[in-house]
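lol ok so funny story. i was supposed to be doing the assay writeup but got distracted and ended up predicting the structure for this chain instead. priorities right. anyway since i did it might as well share w the group, maybe its usefull for someone
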Amino acid sequence: MTYYQYRFSLGSGLTPVIKHLIIVLVSVYLFQKIMEISLPEIYNYYFIYYLSLVPILLWKKYFLWQLVTYIFLHGGSSISSSTF
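and the output, tada:
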């Protein structure tokens, strides 16, 4: 007779790709919050300017990486249009 032993593991029903994606999202979120609090000028200009999806930069300056990097950012900050 075969007995199945229940094993508890964090995220047992998730694939490795999903687990890595969650780790990256949480890491970027924490990094973003630390940057926002400790270095707001650098955060608002460089971090948001280069990584968030800004359509005018995508079309005019060809910041194509923004199509991938914007998904990892979390809302709450905005940059003014005067920086363009």
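Residues 16-38 form the longest helix (23 residues). The chain has a mean pLDDT of 79.
back to the writeup now i swear
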